[in-house]
Specification:
Elements: E1 13-15, H1 18-44, E2 56-64, E3 83-88, H2 96-110, E4 114-122, H3 141-150, H4 162-165, E5 176-177, H5 183-197, E6 207-211, H6 214-228, E7 237-242, E8 246-249, E9 269-274, E10 280-284, H7 289-299, E11 306-315, E12 325-334, H8 352-366, H9 370-376, E13 377-385, H10 397-404, E14 407-411, H11 414-423, E15 428-436, H12 446-474, H13 476-479
Parallel strand pairs: 3-5, 6-10, 6-11, 11-15, 12-13, 13-14
Antiparallel strand pairs: 1-4, 2-3, 2-4, 7-8, 7-9, 9-10, 11-14, 12-15
Helix pairs in contact: 1-2, 5-7, 6-12, 7-11, 8-12
Length: 493
């Protein structure tokens, strides 16, 4: 007889149909999350459980005894070799299409059944709550402290990035990882995303634009609202979502759901939503590499197909003009926020598909070709620093390094976003716009800056959106690069 405070353990069962496998995942997760919510609601109401309350995540496992697999153009969807591979799963409602696709690829590539059952990894009670559940505020400090004795709380040991970093080692005889992220790690990021961006994870799209200036967001919002006033079109956009989950459906012209927050969150997100999730999410990450790492750490669990940085930079070459574009093909990483996770000796390669899409988009939007295009867009190395006042460092320290690295531009976020894309196997790219030239005495004066922003922001954003359209049109099977795969790569995208 099972304890009333523990959910029944469901032994792994074999599935060869991805839909049935996903249905089992959903049934296990829904029952276990509901069990925790009910127990917590009772505790908040004043009823103490007789013993520790526990519910565990669902698990998927694959066993294969051969190196043979079906030929695939994709860079994911198969395990590295013979062995047992498994991962815990969460939020099957949010990841329904994603899980189904991974299951389908594993079944097709290996021809072995998937095992679905209950894992031994507890669901932290905070992660079982819905977006609108706020229980803790009703508890006294004493009862809040006692939560730790009665429920499982988030365990940092279960949600590090060892798998993504290539430092995870399976215990002797233990299973290999099947996905980059465990369920607790995913849940942790989903909760942080809501906090930082002001929007629910459900609204995030598979193509992401990052910027370090609100001007770009203002323009994106203007474009989003204009699109929503139009009748549904070939672009496939169905809604525009803003912080507070304020949702404007296509053709409505005005919001029909959500409440705007009293103040903007730290890194507000805006979403041009498509039914297939292939729309565009844009996030103002603010300034600095810490922010850039934070937001990409969390968005990575949603497994987007690409992210692109559109921001401002200092131009480092005499021939550059304010308003010129910089297409990054390499990075000098002086951001220091990823030194532990991704050593500096690891190169961050440019990804051909993203580079070509960005260059083609600049050509289309500016209507320039050949030499005229090269005159306003330079391809080269971008340096990213964590020192906003690098100009005040003793001369010639930074300038010498920038010169030795052949850097053509300097910012504070691009290298971090690209390096985290590399680390998490998310295709990445960078297109910056020169806003000042500190090495040549050209710093922004108030009037000049306003004119510059007005003239360039609209065009720069349209270039970024066009690049995403080009990437979407060519299909994800070409976008996900084998350059991002390690020797023993996980099967999940």
């Amino acid at each position: 007889m099972h304890s009333p405070h523990h959910t029944p353990f469901i032994a792994p069962e074999q599935f060869t149909d991805p839909d049935l496998a996903q249905a089992r995942v959903r049934a296990i997760y829904d029952a276990n999350a509901a069990h925790l919510r009910e127990a917590l609601a009772a505790y908040v109401a004043g009823t103490d459980p007789e013993r520790h309350v526990r519910a565990c995540y669902p698990l998927v496992r694959v066993r294969t005894n051969t190196v043979a697999r079906a030929d695939s153009r994709l860079s994911y969807g198969f395990v590295a070799g013979p062995g047992v591979y498994e991962t815990t799963l969460t939020r099957p409602d949010l990841f329904d299409d994603y899980y189904r696709e991974q299951f389908k690829l594993l079944l097709r590539n290996h021809g072995v059944a998937l095992e679905i059952g209950t894992s031994t990894q507890p669901i932290p009670v905070h992660f079982a709550l819905g977006d609108d559940d706020h229980f803790e505020g009703h508890l006294s400090p004493e009862r809040r402290l006692r939560l730790r004795d009665l429920f499982d709380l988030p365990d940092l040991a279960a949600m590090d990035d060892g798998i993504a970093n290539g430092t995870h080692e399976a215990p002797p005889g233990g299973p290999y990882p099947l996905a980059l992220f465990t369920a607790p790690r995913v849940d942790y990021s989903l909760h942080r995303l809501r906090h930082y961006t002001g929007t629910a994870a459900e609204h995030f799209q598979n193509f992401v634009l990052f910027t370090n200036y609100q001007f770009y967001i203002d323009e994106f919002v203007r474009l989003g609202h204009a699109l929503m006033r139009e009748a549904p079109g070939a672009d496939g956009y169905t809604a525009f979502v803003e912080p507070g989950n304020v949702t404007t459906p296509r053709g409505a012209g005005a919001p029909t759901a959500g409440t705007a927050p009293p103040r903007l969150p730290q890194m507000p997100a805006y979403h041009l939503v498509r039914g297939d999730r292939a729309g565009i999410t844009m996030v103002n990450i603010g300034v600095g590499p810490a922010n850039a790492k934070t937001i990409t750490d969390h968005i990575a669990v949603l497994r987007p197909h690409a992210w692109i940085m559109l921001g401002h930079c200092a131009g480092l070459r005499n021939t550059q003009q304010l308003g010129d574009y910089v297409l990054a093909h390499g990075y000098v990483r002086e951001d220091h926020v990823l030194d532990e996770e991704l050593p500096l000796w690891v190169p961050i390669p440019p990804l051909a598909e993203v580079q070509v899409a960005l260059e083609s988009a600049v050509e289309e939007v500016t209507q320039l070709k050949g030499y005229e295009l090269k005159r306003i867009m330079r391809t080269g190395t971008v340096a990213s620093t964590d020192n906003r006042n690098w100009e005040l460092l003793p001369h010639p320290g930074p300038e010498r390094r920038f010169s030795q690295s052949r850097a053509i531009a300097l910012d504070m976020e691009s290298a971090t976003i690209a390096a985290n894309g590399f680390r998490f196997r998310v295709p990445y790219g960078t297109l910056l716009c020169v806003s000042d030239k500190p090495l040549h005495g050209e710093i922004k004066l108030p009037g000049m800056a306003n004119t510059f922003y007005r003239e360039r922001v609209d065009q720069h954003l349209r270039i970024g959106m066009r690049a995403i359209e080009l990437l979407r049109a060519q299909g994800v099977d070409q976008l996900h690069s084998r350059k991002l795969r390690s020797f023993a790569e996980v099967a999940f995208q």
